[in-house]
Amino acid sequence: RHVVTENARVIATARALEGGDTGALAEIFRASHRSLRDDFAVSIPELDAMAEAALASPGCLAARMTGAGFGGSIVALVRAEDQTRFLETVAAGYWARTTRTGECFISRVAGGARRESIVA
């Protein structure tokens, strides 16, 4: 169930990004996180808490679990101008939910995987 519904969410995410519909991203990511937690059963309470803390933080457009699960991480799409406040708020929110300290990293969008010609 997760794999089939996730494929549809990937297409919906691409369309939302291409169309500049950032409002749709939050619900798509929430649905993905719920599916990873409930249908695929690979989330843990700490990942759920981090995603909740991220979604409640300034500038967060969307957040969900990512990676292998069982102690993986979340990815959050955050407006660049809010990144400092986001980091502070998500850390405090995670602590309030878990009494644990999480780590946050800022990364930027890259070109992604692509095929290139190799000239010998």
Describe the structure.
With 120 residues, this protein is mainly alpha-helical. It is built from 4 helices and 2 strands. A two-stranded antiparallel sheet has the order 1-2. α1 packs antiparallel against α2 and α3 runs antiparallel to α4. The longest helix has 17 residues. The model has no long low-confidence stretch (mean pLDDT 92).
Give a short summary of the structure:
With 120 residues, this protein is mostly helical.
Features:
120 residues; two-stranded antiparallel sheet; mainly alpha
Instruction: Give the overall silhouette.
Output: globular
| Count of distinct strands | 2
The biggest sheet amounts to: 2 strands, antiparallel
Class from helix and strand fractions: mainly alpha
Low-confidence stretches: none
Distance between the termini: 45 Å
How are the SSEs placed, and which strands pair?
Elements: H1 2-18, H2 22-38, H3 45-55, E1 60-66, E2 73-78, H4 83-98
Antiparallel strand pairs: 1-2
Helix pairs in contact: 1-2, 3-4
